[in-house]
Amino acid sequence: LIRPQLKQAKQHRELVASLAKGDEVATSGGLLGKIKEVGDNFVVLEISKETQVKIQKQSVSIVYPKGTLKTI
Hints:
The protein is 22% helix and 40% strand. The chain has one helix at residues 2-17, and strands at residues 24-27, 32-38, 42-48, 51-56, 60-64. Strands 4-3-2-1-5 form a five-stranded antiparallel beta sheet, covered by helices on one side. The radius of gyration is 13 Å and the shape is elongated.
């Protein structure tokens, strides 16, 4: 039981460490958007044209393939 949880935590750490400008992501809270800036602990996420929010890197749960979020 502990081994799968450790593997999942490691995968999430790697995902967070690999975040880059231009990645299309979903957060654990349900926001979808494109990363505009990456800092040490925060990223700026563009959720619609001219609407940006600053979120914690740890809240990113999924990185989508490029071009998935075409409306942004």
